[in-house]
Amino acid sequence: MNPAAQQECFAKLFLRHSRALYSHVRAQVPHPQDADDVFQETCIVLWQKFDQYRPNTSFLAWACRIAHYKALKLHERHHRSPRLFGSEFQEIVGEEMIVMDEMLEARSAALRKCREKLNQRDRDLLERYYRPGATAKIVARYAKRSIHYVYRAMRRIHDTLHECISKTLIEDSIP
User: Fold this and answer.
1) Residue range 69-74: average pLDDT?
2) Using 50, 70 and 90 to split pLDDT, how confident is the model at 90?
3) Within a domain: residue 148?
4) For 13-48, what is each residue's pLDDT tens digit?
5) Dihedral (C-alpha) 62, 66, 68, 74: value to the nearest 10 degrees?
6) Among positive and negative, which fits the CA dihedral 133, 139, 140, 144?
7) DSSP per residue, 10-51
8) Number of structural domains found in the chain
């Protein structure tokens, strides 16, 4: 991979997973300033060692493993400070966070697919309903319908999306 493509690939993966990575660090390092330091050190290592990352594997899992070792180093440097949680607990929490993030990412992708399957009227209603500051009353006024219509329509849309997401997740997990 040429350097420009490598930089672009790293940037996309990092932006996609940086929030989950920081959450992983915060779960292991309770003090915010220490967590910021560990996160920053982790980011540097991720960039330096990105050529060792294997494409088509979980970037988040790889990044969290590096963050875990950085957090352990911090704990070793501060070995006199009492730890809130043992390293075994931190490792379990870290692994669960990775699984949860991957699950949420799959659900988000399924939601995007299912949203596109809605008819235009339902997509428009959904978008208006979830706009910042929107209320059912405002949406009803826009749609020139009763507030009860909006509630019933949103319930129907939510049920449709829920069913579609469940089916999509099952279909995507079948090899």
Assistant:
1) 87
2) low
3) yes
4) 999 889 888 988 888 887 889 999 999 999 999 999
5) -170
6) positive
7) HHHHHHHHHHHHHHHHHHH--SHHHHHHHHHHHHHHHHHTGG
8) 2
Q: Are 67 and 24 in contact (CB under 8 A)?
A: yes
Q: What is the CATH number of the domain that holds 49?
A: 1.10.1740.10
DSSP character string of the chain: --HHHHHHHHHHHHHHHHHHHHHHHHHH--SHHHHHHHHHHHHHHHHHTGGGS-TTS-HHHHHHHHHHHHHHHHHHHTTTSPPSS-HHHHHHHHHHHHHHHHHHHHHHHHHHHHHHHS-HHHHHHHHHHTSTT--HHHHHHHHTS-HHHHHHHHHHHHHHHHHHHHHHHHHHH--
Please tell me whether residues 64 and 4 are part of one structural domain: yes
- Torsion angle defined by CA atoms of residues 18, 13, 57 and 48, in that order, rounded to the nearest 10 degrees: -80
Instruction: Please give the single-letter amino acid code of residue 26.
Output: R
Q: How many CB atoms lie within 10 A of CB 114?
A: 18
Q: Which pTM was predicted?
A: 0.53
Residue with tokens 């991979």: 1
